[in-house]
Model the fold of this input.
Amino acid sequence: MTVSTEQWHASPDPNEPPIADAATGEVRVPLALYLVDQQRGRVPLVLSRADAEQLCTVLRRALGAAR
Done:
């Protein structure tokens, strides 16, 4: 069976909150990985503080434009 990457997606894991390291500025966002609608694993998205701030800005703009 061939699986297209278009069938995979990731969502924040609702059972684990993001964690910020005050010393390094690193932000870890636990993600749940899904194939269509079946959870297939978990992985942390690890971002620097600057990358996390940039991602939040882009998401806020995208969500604002979608309204």
About this structure: The mean pLDDT is 88. The longest helix spans residues 49-66. The first strand starts at residue 8 and ends at 12.
